[in-house]
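Example record

The entry below shows one chain as it appears in the dataset: sequence first, then structure tokens.
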Amino acid sequence: MWAVCKKEFRQFFSSLTGYIAIFVFLLMNGLILFVFPSTNIFDFGYASLSSFFELAPWILLLLIPAITMRSFSDEFKSGTFEILQTKPLSDWDLTMGKYLASLFVMLIALLPTIVYFFSVQSLSGQNGIDVGASIGSYIGLFFLAAVFVAISICCSSFTHNAVVSFIGAAFFCFVIYSGFNAISGISSLPAGSDYYLEMLGIDFHYRSISRGVIDTGDLVYFLSLISFFLIFTKKNLSKH
């Protein structure tokens, strides 16, 4: 597993692709937080990271599928997956190795954004920004990214085409992130069902953790979703 993880991680940074992906993520969030009208903190009149935590999931929704779209699809297309099967590696080793490598890449992309926290903190007033809510939001953002990576890896295991993998992953990430929230807003739904529908979406649990309260139910939700897609990926690989 760790051999696959190290190979994938090194391969990602062996070209400019990895560096460009991280640079684009940091640049987009920096522009949103400090430059773009209506979202930058200077237009708000008070120091807050809320715009960053609201818009970062949408950037990750496209960035993560772009990073992971070749995980298995290129292995299938080039025929190297058959070579990997001859190695002393189980399907679970391949799945977890590629998953952890992509997750480490996203962690590297998220870590520099802590600079935003200190920058906004220095611009804030006497009381500063809400540290508890910021820590909760970062934890929520990490789990959100972890789910997106699991979904994207799973989609890549279904096709030989990297573009199809990207489109499929972006679509499913979108549906699971905000689709249930949108459906819960339908007025014709039975009373009370809107709340339970909203609970099925990532956005509900992400917003819950972002309040600074780490609830067991939210953690179980994220870990269950990650486990489901990784197990599904492993089962799919066993068919090849």
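Notes for this example: DSSP finds 13 helices and no strands in the chain. The chain has one domain: 2-237.
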